[in-house]
Amino acid sequence: MSLNYVMLCDSYVPGLDKGKGLYFLFVKSETKTPGGLLARPVLTSYYKSDHFKTRPYDPYNVYTSPNEAILCPDSFQSMYTQMLCGLYDRQQVLRVGAVFASGLLRAIRFLQLNWPQLVQDIRTGSLNPRITDPSVLECLSGIVRPEPELADFVEAECGKDNWEGIITRIWPNTKYLDVIVTGAMAQYIPTLDYYSGGLPLACTMYASSECYFGLNLNPMSKPSEVSYTIMPNMAYFEFLPHDPDSYSAGFNRNSTNPPKLVDLVDVEIGKEYELVITTYAGLYRYRVGDILRVTGFHNSAPQFHFVRRKNVLLSIDSDKTDEAELQKAVENASQLLREYNTSVVEYTSYADTKTIPGHYVIYWELLVKDPANAPSQTVLNQCCLAMEESLNSVYRQGRVADNSIGPLEIRVVKNGTFEELMDYAISRGASINQYKVPRCVSFTPIVELLDSRVVSVHFSPSLPHWTPERRR
């Protein structure tokens, strides 16, 4: 976060230069493209750069987490160290955050699971033997110290059954949470409100690995009202009027009727557009895949509300699974059912964020032609794993390396369930002639209907395959 932006937050929440930020920040594993180029998320590139590691002192950007913890590639050691340092500095913490809402909730879940060992370290001034990274050990040698009173306090708070408001109970001076809660992350807002006691949620910026897009100039606005002001010096921005029935396969340069792009200054308030960028790094008219709605202008720069990712059905963290990919995963998994003379009649899905980390739930209605030879629990568990193996590398990295996604779950429902689902949709006004089974559901009554028809539940029994290629 830049100095100017934190100073902007300071104009809404004074005194941010008088304390620290507890931010849970992590590097991700690097991979290589088939051509041998190094590939990694933009934040990993930034954290590993001298711009971050040797940044000058800035009173608005003092973190509780040491650089060594952020740069530690082992996710457990990194999280443990950042949490431990955050507990030692609990009175100085003025804001708590992570990149995504899911990341902050993962940190809270980590505290739920590991607070006894953290308390032991604080009480004795020792260190969990699982912390073995040399650079982390060196930096912690000047931080870890015996503080019995702090240990007693953390033990008393974390030992309670009720964790409502745990963030403000442990870090009492926290003024707001700094996390992205727009788009797919909005599903985490109720859980964040529960753990924080309703602290304001500051959605600070709109960016991706391809480009930095814009800022929220009203950082304390409600998440549903957040608009990002495009920064025209970051790239050349163009906008494709959103029409879900046209150009779904991308630009066709040979078409006689190419899509008509709208320039930055010509967008119209209230209309929706797909973002297209040309960057200094060499991307030319790259379709980001984000659908934005124009809400106004700041001087001549348009402001946008993030509507959704185009064609994305499921997302827990930084993963994005579309309908075609989900269909392929179901097809691959259903191959395991053939020898049992069983097939998948219908399916739908949703992203379950009630657990931490969240996970994909897939509802299957099966046609079992020979009940005496029905697929076993073990076979259906393997179907879960087969689906995970079919999903993209970002999903599998979240499962294997980042621990940001839980095991995929298949819930088998009674025969006729999807007919009931259609009946419900028709009762609410859907056309029987145009009805299609939704491949992703989020409407609570529909999820409750599906859950009431579940006959068996299955989880992926192991991690899918994911191995990064590291630089030699």
TrEMBL record:
GO annotations of cellular component type: cytoplasm
Ligase in keyword set: yes
GH3 C-terminal domain: residues covered: 325-443
InterPro entries: GH3, GH3_C, GH3_M
GH3 middle domain boundaries: 228-309
Keywords for this protein: Ligase
Highest taxon of source: Eukaryota
GO molecular-function term, one example from the UniProt record: acid-amino acid ligase activity
Ranges that cross the membrane: none
Family: Belongs to the IAA-amido conjugating enzyme family.
Name of protein: OLC1v1002978C2
Species assigned in the record: Oldenlandia corymbosa var. corymbosa
